[in-house]
Amino acid sequence: MAKQTVTLRLDEDDLTYLAGLEMPGAANLSEKIRALLADARAQRDGLGDFGAAYDFTRRLFSAPERCVRDSEVRTQVRSELIARVLAWLPDTAAFVLSGACPRADPRRKDDVEHLRRLEHGLGERVLALVDSMLQLAHAGFPGCYDPGILAQRSRTAVTMSASAAATSADTHREDTRR
User: Fold this and answer.
1) Rounded to 5 degrees, what angle do the CA atoms 166, 167, 172 make?
2) Domain extent listing, the chain
3) Cβ–Cβ contacts within 10 Å for residue 55, how many?
4) How far apart are CA 60 and CA 43, in angstroms?
5) Cα–Cα distance between 128 and 114 in angstroms, integer?
């Protein structure tokens, strides 16, 4: 597509912000504006499309993840908890972005079924994170910055988890006897 020249007036704050904005592959103001438009388009296209939403959320979380990784390399420490959560966030956010608002169709009659699928998918993702955190808790949070504090904080969750598992097992045994 042929490019069109567009005149744009920005106040000083916006111009300073745009000039200081670091975007991969965007060196000048025009490239930065095009990159911002591409990001906005990707964000909007991600609604209803998991792949596009996942690409968008990976980019969204890449800056904080890079900062954490840079700090970890510089200080020679690593957090398994942070690594797991940062790996979980883009997938879960993309799932919500792509599935929470189906394309508007006045003939839709399956909104309840759609909401059930959303709840199921979100529940699967949240419970996978819970499983991962419980796994770390049971092992004493190896590979974390401050395992003692995390272990202390997790005691309630681990106790509740064990209690819920026992209750669930009892209920299952009663159901199978009937």
Assistant:
1) 95
2) 14-45, 47-100+110-170
3) 17
4) 10
5) 21
Distance CA 46, CA 56 (A): 7
Q: What is the DSSP code (8-state) at residue 103?
A: P
What digits encode the pLDDT tens for the residues 111-139? 788 888 899 999 999 999 999 999 999 99
Does pLDDT of 97 surpass 80? yes
For the chain, counts of helices (H) and of strands (E): 6, 0
Of the candidates 86, 90, 58, 88, the residue with the CA atom closest to the CA atom of residue 72: 86
What tokens does 177 get?
Answer: 């006897």
* Extended beta strands in 40-112, E state: none
Task: Write down the pTM of the prediction.
Answer: 0.70
82 SS3 class: helix
Angle at 88 between CA 128 and CA 162, to 5 degrees: 30
Q: How many residues does the chain have?
A: 178
Q: What is the pLDDT of residues 7-46, one digit of tens each?
A: 888 899 988 998 888 887 888 888 888 888 887 887 676 6
What are residue 154's DSSP bridge partners? Answer: none
In whole angstroms, what separates CA 166 from the centre of its chain?
31
Separation between Cα atoms, residue 98 and residue 50, nearest integer Å: 5
